[in-house]
Design goal:
The chain has 3 helices and 14 strands. It has about 210 residues and is mainly beta. InterPro entries: G_crystallin-like (IPR011024).
Length: about 210
């Protein structure tokens, strides 16, 4: 996903994703973090049809490419076919489910930041009320523009949800070597919407299973 041109305030970007085993690519125009027009008719029609699912998943593969699924069950079935041995044998102890990650309110890992560090099957039901290690209320609901996982256990699934209590659309990352990052969530379209994942994350869950 990269900017290829800019005309006044309109930016031309490339939409590049997989869905149900097919690869879709199209340039699109973006203004103020919103899609104005997707130029390829087939890609445009398919992309906006994803709005029919309120549980659509944006999965960022460890290699960096985007794949959309209608829901977590569809994602689980697909990954079990691709990596059956890894999926079937995951059963980490609480001490192995260690993670530390950072949320930033500006791109490129800048601006205001909160640190989340936990053991076990960790959840944040609402970022507005999450308490930091210093006991302060984070008030970070719909604020995240970049995120970095630096000390996570390998092959953990980090699920970032659009709504509180793990509902709505979901962005999923899997750690490799205990690490994963997104420099700018504006580059990751919210499937079926003209908006991106920027300033959309409300709740978080982490586990070794989908």
């Amino acid at each position: 996903m990269a900017n290829v041109a800019s005309v006044n305030d309109t930016i031309i970007k490339k939409l590049d994703f997989y869905y149900k085993g097919n690869h879709y690519v199209s340039d699109y125009s973006s203004l103020n973090d919103s899609i104005v027009e997707i130029f390829d008719e087939e890609v445009r029609s398919l992309y906006f049809s994803l709005s029919d699912s309120s549980q659509v998943v944006t999965y960022i593969h460890p290699e960096g490419y985007i794949e959309y699924f209608d829901n977590l069950d569809m994602m689980r079935s697909s990954l079990e076919e691709e990596e059956p041995n890894r999926i079937a044998t995951r059963d980490l102890s609480i001490m192995q489910k260690y993670g530390r990650f950072y949320l930033y309110d500006d791109d490129g890992f800048s601006g205001r930041m909160i640190i989340v560090e936990e053991f076990g099957g960790f959840v944040v039901s609402h970022l507005k009320s999450y308490k930091t290690a210093l006991g302060e209320t984070a008030n970070f609901n719909d604020k995240t523009t970049a995120l970095k996982i630096e000390l996570g256990s390998d092959n953990l699934y980090y699920k970032f949800w659009e709504d509180d209590h793990f509902s709505g659309r979901c962005l999923v990352l899997r750690t490799t070597g205990g690490r994963a990052e997104i420099r700018n969530l504006k580059d990751y379209p919210l499937a079926g919407s003209s908006k991106s994942w920027n300033d959309r994350i409300t709740s978080i869950s982490i586990d070794d299973k989908l």
